[in-house]
Amino acid sequence: MADKAGPHSDLARAQTALSQARHVACLTGAGISAASGVPTYRGAGGALWDGLKVEDWASPEGYARQPERVWRWYSDRRVQLGGISPNAGHAALAEIERRIAGRGGTFTLATQNIDALHQRAGSRNVLELHGSMLRIRCCVCEHARQVGHEPIEEIPACPQCGARMRPAVVWFGEMLPQDVWTAAAEAAAECDVFLTVGTSAVVYPAAGLVEMAAATGGTTIEINLEPTPASRLVDIAIQGKADEVLPELVSGTG
Ligand code: OAD
After folding, report:
1. Distance in Å, CA 252 to ligand 1 centroid
2. How many helices (H) and strands (E) in the chain?
3. Calpha distance 123→113 (Å, rounded)
4. d(C-alpha 55, C-alpha 50), whole Å
5. Whether residue 45 has its Cβ less than 6 Å from ligand 1
6. Does ligand 1 come within 6 angstroms of the Cβ of 253?
7. Residue owning the nearest CA to atom 35 of ligand 1
8. Residue in 26, 27, 32, 41 to alter for ligand 1 test, most ligand atoms within 8 A of Cβ
9. 23, 90, 130, 149: the active-site residue
10. In which band, very low, low, confident or very high, does the pLDDT at 1 lie, cut at 50, 70 and 90?
């Protein structure tokens, strides 16, 4: 981690900002779940799947082209998730929320992740920008249901209209759920401190939350393994692992 020690270090400045904040918003991405064993999509440690980039198959067209293959990807990850636990980074964000709420403030956690690990770590005000692996929905009608970690080998048919079900996640080319997006954008625009953690900050509109927060004057802090397009926008950019930096941030924060 760069510039770790001392009262004027990036970490110390971030701790001071967080200690004084009343309204905090946070954007997380795949990097925060990396220490739990969930692979990222890009960047250091990021993986291709069967030689394909995520943009090539995580789309309505990708699902229409090869539904069984895409279904299996999500189904396998959903099953794996049953044996995975939240890490110290998730726990630290849940602790920040408890402290901010305890002094009458608000904490909004907008995540691009579909693994529900924030909720399992105790975060309460979570906005799932890209949906959840633990939900499936009909490709045609509104029918949706929760699913657990059990394997579902065959793509189920919708019990209401008979069409094919799909993971209830947001794919490339699709809109984010309007209410979820509005809440995230409001939180980013109104916060005193904005944290962006473990995201390559290249997928929009989610990445635009950093720009909104920077434009409205809150203190913006990035925690990521490597520089991203957000690094030059934020006030404080800390390079390091989320599961190491976030607990340090909390330990020095009131
Ligand atoms: P990415 O895989 O694009 O980026 C993960 C970022 O986390 C990279 O910049 C890594 O350097 C960083 N990273 C890796 N390990 C880390 C660690 N231990 N601590 C901190 N940072 C770490 O993931 P996202 O930005 O979440 O969307 O990707 C955004 C969206 O692209 C996803 O939600 C998904 C994908 O396509 C859809 O499927 C719609």
Report:
1. 26
2. 9, 9
3. 13
4. 13
5. yes
6. no
7. 41
8. 41
9. 130
10. very low
How many residues in the chain? 254
pLDDT in tens, 206-252: 999 999 999 998 999 999 999 999 999 999 999 999 999 999 999 97
Sheet holding 193-197, edge to edge: 126-128, 106-111, 23-28, 193-197, 219-224, 236-239
d(CA 253, CA 100): 11
Task: Tell me, using a 6 A CB cutoff, whether residue 36 lines ligand 1.
Answer: no
Closest Cα to atom 32 of ligand 1: 112
d(CA 153, CA 184): 34
Tell me which residue of 244, 229, 235 sits closest to 14, measured CA to CA: 235
Establish whether 130 is a catalytic residue: yes
Six token digits for residue 241:
């692992």
CA atoms within 13 A on the CB side of 141: 10
End-to-end CA gap in the chain: 22
How far, in Å, CA of 238 to CA of 127, rounded? 24
Nearest CA residue ID for atom 15, ligand 1: 31
